[in-house]
Amino acid sequence: MSETSSTWTGLVPVDDTALAVTDTGGPGVPVLYLNGQFATQGYWRRVIAELGTGWRHITYDERARGRTSKRSTDYSFEAAVRDVDAVLAARKVDRALVVGWSYGAVVGAHWANRNPERALGAVLVDGAFPHDWLDEAMEQRIRKMFRRMNLFMPLLRPTGLTPRMNAEQMADSNIELGRLSRERELGPVLDSITVPVRYVVASGTSLGSRGDEQEKIRASLDAATARNPHIQIAAKVASNHGAILKKDFRAVAEAVREVATLDRAAGTSRDGLL
Question: 205-214: per-residue pLDDT in tens?
Answer without folding.
Answer: 766 566 688 8
